[in-house]
Amino acid sequence: MSLLTIHTEGRPEDGVAINGHQAIADMLAAIGVRFERWTTGRELRAGDAPEEVLEAYRESVDRLKQLYGFQSVDVISVGPDHPQKAGLRAKFLEEHVHSDFEVRFFVEGRGLFFLHPDEKVYGVLCEQGDLISVPARVKHWFDMGESPAFTCIRLFTRPDGWAAEFTGSEIAGTFPRLEQFVKFDSWSLHV
After folding, report:
1. DSSP character at residue 135
2. How far is Cα 126 from Cα 104, in angstroms, rounded to an integer?
3. How many domains does the chain have?
4. Which pLDDT tens digit goes with each residue over 86-114?
5. Which of 5, 91, 92, 139 could be disulfide-bonded to 123 (CB atoms 3.0-4.6 Å)?
6. Where residue 16 sits, what CATH number does that domain have?
């Protein structure tokens, strides 16, 4: 289940949780973040070639390409046996920004984004079928978990993609990691 938590900056232990896709999408839209559900009529299997994955979601991908001028699209898969999983996880656990959108559609698996656009921090648990688009220059970090298992479609407005610019803030280290986030049952839940 997708989940959004909203925290006051510096208070990771206090969060209001929101579930229900439309409620999450509405709250994130208020800070300029697109959150959508995509479906496909095609059955996909783990290990399908990137071309098959892109073809299954062609209509949704083409709509976003036209809307935002995305020039390149790829598919990334990271599994628990990925040889660079620890390094990839560590890199994205630090707060950073990009000069471009960061767009992810979760074909399978899940991941946890924390967005820090102002004095609040938004935790967004994305699962299979979720698309999140983080605007350029919005501070954020991402946790794929200790044992990642996801496939994502990524869209870029520049053919060479984007690079992370790290803020140097320690805030990401004060918030729960994916495994703790999904187990924490004390969020004050609003549906």
Report:
1. P
2. 9
3. 1
4. 998 998 999 999 988 899 999 999 999 99
5. 5
6. 2.60.120.10
